[in-house]
Amino acid sequence: MKRTTRRRLGLALVIAGLVAIMGGCSSNSNPAQTVKTVVQPLSAQQIADKIGCGDFVQKGPAQMYVIDSGTCVLDGVKYGIDTFASTDVRDNWLKIAQNYGVVPKWETATAIIYKATVQ
Known about the structure:
The chain is an alpha+beta fold. The protein has helices at residues 3-22, 31-34, 44-51, 87-97, and strands spanning 54-58, 68-74, 77-83, 104-108, 111-115. Strand 4 and strand 5 (111-115) form a beta hairpin.
């Protein structure tokens, strides 16, 4: 098969896939029935600010399941802050992290604050 024929075939397959995906979309659908509100979890920085934890250092999504993370210092103790997309994701992460000595100091529905293992 010629190279241009393969490209055209590949492009046709991509277009067919997009048409199939978009087939479920309709301009006549009721937006109120299809739109879901998604609340963005607080960032690690926002959580640190809310609990008065200073010297915040952004770590980013460094670990499995983590959306955002960082460290901060409160009363001379260094804490890790990790945020998650949902409570279920947070709980799964915690099950794994507890095997490594992570013990939550505070928890929210989408975050865990714990004493950092390295001070």
